[in-house]
Amino acid sequence: MKELKLFNSIINLTWIGVVFMILILGTTMFTNFTYKEETKDVKIIDVVKSPINKNLAIGKALFKSKCAACHHKNMKDDLTGPALGGVTERWSTYPKEDLYNWIRNSSRLIDKKHPKALEIWEEWNYSPMSSFVELSDKEIEAILEYVEM
User: Fold this and answer.
1) Can you spell out the DSSP letters for the chain?
2) Rg for the chain (alpha carbons), in Å?
3) pLDDT tens string 11-61
4) Can you tell me the distance from the alpha carbon of 75 to that of 83, in angstroms, rounded to the nearest whole number?
5) Domains along the chain with CATH numbers
6) Rounded to whole angstroms, how far apart are CA atoms 116 and 35?
7) Which of 6, 71, 83, 109 supports an S-S bond with 114, CB 3.0-4.6 Å?
8) Which string of b and e fits 131-146 if b means at least 16 CB within 10 Å?
9) Buried b / exposed e along 57-91 (16+ C-beta atoms within 10 A)
């Protein structure tokens, strides 16, 4: 009889533990689901519906795929290439098309003896920047907006 009571107590405690675990897991799953939904909504509102943030998102994606291999993500420190923070200011004495041309094909600007292109080329030990001839003006604008934010 004692053994049966002990067995029933163990079974009852096991069921209480199982119910407790289900409640904890259920709460955790619901919380994560709610958080993901809120995050998703924020992305939709901030990125898709706002042209400014959409441009930043495009710029960030392009920076990661085209620039991050050579330029530090904090925009303040040099890496293989120079820090990009303040790049538009450093090129401000020239038409913006010159900076766009530098980004698309630095070698062409160096060959044309552009003063800023030669300055950067010499400063970085005669290493030309990778060419990105496929980038449109809008894409370059998005990258620069992201870099300068």
Assistant:
1) -HHHHHHHHHHHHHHHHHHHHHHHHHHHHHHHHHHHHHHHHHHIIIIIS-HHHHHHHHHHHHIIIIITTTS-TTSSS-SSS---TTHHHHTTTS-HHHHHHHHH-HHHHHHTT-HHHHHHHHHTTT-PPPP-TT--HHHHHHHHHHHH-
2) 28
3) 655 666 555 566 555 554 444 443 333 333 434 344 445 556 888 999 999
4) 5
5) 2-148 (1.10.760.10)
6) 48
7) 109
8) ebeebeeebbbbbbbb
9) bbbbebbeebbeeebbeebeeeeebbebbebeeeb
At position 101, the amino acid (one-letter code) is N
